[in-house]
Amino acid sequence: MIYLDYQATTPVAPEVAAAMRPWIEDKFANPHSPSRWGREAAATIDVARQQVAGAIGLPGGSLAFTGSATEALNWAIKGTLERAGPERRRIVTLGTEHAAVLDSCAWLEGQGVEVTYLPVGSDGLVELETLRAAVDGQTALVAAMLVNNEIGVIQPVEEIARIAHAAGAMMLCDAVQALGRVDIPAGPDLVAVSAHKIHGPKGIGALWMRDCAEPAPLIHGGGQEQGLRSGTLSPALCVGFGEAARLARDSAQDDAAHVAGLWNAALKSLGPEWAINGSVDRRYQGNLNIRREGLDSARLLSDLRDICMSLGSACASGSGRPSHVLRAIGLSDRDARASIRLGFGRYTTEAELVDAIGRIDEAARAQERFAA
Ligand code: PLP
Question: Which residues line ligand 1 (CB under 6 A)?
Answer without folding.
Answer: 68-70, 98, 100, 145, 149, 174, 176-177, 194, 205, 313
